[in-house]
User: Fold these one by one.
Assistant:
Number 1:
Amino acid sequence: MNTPIRLYRDRLLHEQAQLLERIAFERGGVISQAAMAAKKDVNDFDTHAQVITERDIEFAMSAHEAAELNELDNALQRWDAGRYGFCTDCAAAIPVARLDAYPAALRCVTCQEAFETAH
């Protein structure tokens, strides 16, 4: 796909807006993890283990969504700095196919594979 690089900014902004809408819809608004945990009470129908499991799932979802928002924010900052589309490790241009698949990509495929192997 021959997507002009300028269109990725619009896509990043769109994905960011969709994620924020999803968070607001699923949580009834953007609230903190502490507030989310505080509103979850044990009642006659829930066992303590169920409540703990549900809280853990909600915390994991929040952490995942926060990481996703952070990746999108970082990509937009790289865009503003003129560094979007270039590998943060080797400075090579990230292939368009990779950006099409994952617009917030930090690294080219080679550097990403090396990063994942090391971590």
Number 2:
Amino acid sequence: MKTTVASAAGMAVELRDVRKSFGKTEIIRGANLAVREGERVAIIGPNGAGKSTLFHLISGRLHPTSGSIHLHGERIDGLQPYTINRKGLARSFQVSNLFTRLSVFENIRCAVLWSLGYRYAFWKFLADLKDANDRADEVLHQIRLERKRDTLAVNLTYAEQRALEIGITIAGGAKVILLDEPTAGMSQSETHRFVELIREVTVGKTLLTVEHDMSVVFGLADKIAVLVYGEVIAFDTPEAVRNNERVREAYLGSVLAEQQAAMVS
């Protein structure tokens, strides 16, 4: 049974000595992290560092081998993803996860319904659910897709589909948002606009994002957690992480060099 435990005041997400093994292979090796309410935290690290596994553990898709995970002081490791979602944590994925044959509005409304307490009932007409429809329109305005309201999700551009995924993630009113590589595959101009959108829709919320684009990381995050070989080797402000010698040696120096070379070419 999961219980509420002593937690530092104002903490949104806490990982305490979290480990995850697949057979004899240990992917997460005693990760510790404490994210305050309202913070925007970017999780970075080399490929294979365990970033997606860490997100799976926090959101309940995987259960830790040992250690504990807490959401607003309540222990959630071992709970199912839908239960964690109802406690106020939502996430997006690297791969688009939309109802492609539904309209933009219908996609958002599906995400809204459960949060407003609606369950399946064949005698209810969705068009009559004013609170759900109003909330869906509000989210459409937030993600700037009002003009695409009746467009099928399959007909959106890639950047618009990613924006719709953000809308679905925030539609239920979750206080903690996990975004997995939200700007992957976008052009530089699309990335800039998308970062502004993320910043706007997460005001007052706690954000954890996995991101490889260092311009996004340093432009969006209040703090950066560096994950290397399943361990958090640094967790600090962007400036402190940028100047951390251990981080530069393990990861950051080579990544910045690669991205600067790509911009020159």
